Amino acid sequence: MDRQVVLPFLKSLEIAYKNLRVRFFRSMITTMSLVLAIAFLTFVGVTTDIINGMLDSGNTEAHQKLTQSGYDIDSVQSRMESDVKQRWIIMLSLLVCVVGIVNAQLMAVTERFREIGTMKCLGALDRFILRLFLLEAGIQGLAGAAIGAVAGCFFALLNAFFRFGTLFLTGFYWSDMAAAAGVAMGVGSLLSLIGVFYPAMVASRMQPVEAMRIEH
Amino acid sequence: MTEPGNIVRVSKLTKNFKMGKMDVEVLKGIDLEIVKGQYISIMGPSGSGKSTLFNMIGGLDKPTSGKVYIDEVDISQLDAYELAWLRCRKIGYIFQTFNIIQVMTALENVTLPMVFAGMNNDDAVQKGIELLDVVGLGDRFQHKPFELSGGQQQRVAVARALANDPAIILADEPTGNLDLTTGEEIIKLLKRLSLERGVTIISATHDFKMLNVSDQVVWIRDGRVDKIEDRNELSISVGQIDDRG
């Protein structure tokens, strides 16, 4: 007989999904920092696309509007500088986001010690547990990043509309926005996975007795 | 040397725990043989090491020295995969705190070990419903644990322990968190399963209700086997049991 325990991928996906659904509020809190960070990232990306589009369009009216709202369109240098600053802020926000996720996931793992130990007593291997946590984080990452990207795009467009009127559409391509949103979603999913990796390792390596010994 | 009927054999088992800088010897050399199909109670006061012994037999903890054989296989020689397989297929666990997975329904709890064992979903669901029926919860399989009483949760745990037709059921204080009547029902249920299915039941307990159904009682004291009594000896000495604490 094949002495192997298994957990089919679809089944793990089902368990991960159910776990998230049952702990909806908890998962939402974990996802919230991701939503905010990704919304910010998308907002900055799309706004930059809009402004660059207006600059490159050569439309004088658009250039006037930009000057009115404080952009120095003559100096390429200032554009570069603001880019560097922005990049720093984005990096920081993403870093804070990862730390937030690690923190929330560590809490979640602690809450689930007993459940993990029970699963191990029933024959689960370390990698089943790891896979469940990674899948949950992946789903959270995708969902959170999607919400964040949509929110970011929406507010970037809204902001541009109020500042420049319909002029913001000069030289703006929807495909650029889609690309920015896509990048943000990718980054978001990746961040979620990075954030859960350490907590998931802690969870999966736990000996079943240790898990059982913890009193709740 | 060994009888073929032994499902569990423990030989010169010791276990030390580190408490700060001190080594505390919890088990001081235990030898034990458990015959297939019997209902064994491991009795002893708190701190006597019975839970530790129990964890060793269940492959949940590693001994400091000595061997544990399950079906004549030395479990310290098993790698992580084989150990997981052993936990999944050979041993069913029942805990004092039930340890039902809270986010799953009763049925999902019972089918989980079968999924690990590679059974396909339809068969697992069917067998899960049958098992819940056996423990008297046939109509409550879609309930979540928090909708079940303690006794019902423990029944789910019993059904889950039976999922892969294990040779051994290890029950750590199965009645510890239950009231008198509910505890009695669980004990009767375990006894019935032991008789019907020929599964060996090893139960760590200090519940004297267990004594009536046990084929053998192993008394543990200070990390040693104090005394092993068979059922017929028990009925004679039953008057003294209260003195043992």
SSE succession of chain B: EEEHEEHEHHHEHEEEHH
Assign the CATH architecture of chain B.
3-Layer(aba) Sandwich
Subunit organisation of the chains: heterodimer
Cα(first) to Cα(last) distance of chain B is 35 Å
Show the largest interface.
A-B, 29 and 29 residues
Return the average pLDDT of chain A rounded to an integer. Answer: 86
| Total strands of chain B | 10
Order of helical and strand elements of chain A: HHHHHHHH
Describe the structure.
The complex is a heterodimer of chains A (216) and B (245). Chain A is mainly alpha-helical and 216 residues long. Chain A has a domain at 33-62 and 94-213. Chain A is built from 8 helices and no strands. In chain A, helix 1 (9-22) crosses helix 6 (126-164) and helix 2 packs antiparallel against helix 7. The longest helix of chain A is centred in the C-terminal third of the chain and has 39 residues, at 126-164. Chain B is an alpha/beta fold and 245 residues long. Chain B has a single domain, classed as Rossmann fold (3-Layer(aba) Sandwich). Chain B is built from 8 helices and 10 strands. In chain B, strand 4 and strand 5 form a beta hairpin. In chain B, 46% of the residues are buried. Mean pLDDT of chain B is 87; it is low at 241-245. The A-B interface holds A 2-8, 11, 18-19, 22-23, 114-115, 117-126, 128, 207-209, 212 and B 55, 58, 60-61, 80-82, 84-85, 87-89, 93, 95, 97, 99-104, 112-113, 115-118, 121, 160.
Summarize this structure briefly:
The complex is a heterodimer of chains A (216) and B (245). Chain A is mostly helical.
Helices, strands, pairings?
The complex is a heterodimer of chains A (216) and B (245).
Chain A: H1 9-22, H2 24-57, H3 60-68, H4 76-111, H5 113-121, H6 126-164, H7 174-205, H8 208-213
Chain B: E1 6-19, E2 22-35, E3 39-43, H1 50-57, E4 65-70, E5 73-74, H2 80-89, E6 91-94, H3 106-116, H4 121-134, H5 150-161, E7 168-172, H6 180-197, E8 200-205, E9 216-221, E10 224-230, H7 231-237, H8 241-244
Parallel strand pairs in B: 3-8, 3-9, 6-7, 7-8
Antiparallel strand pairs in B: 1-2, 1-4, 4-5, 9-10
Helix pairs in contact in B: 3-4, 3-5, 4-5, 5-6
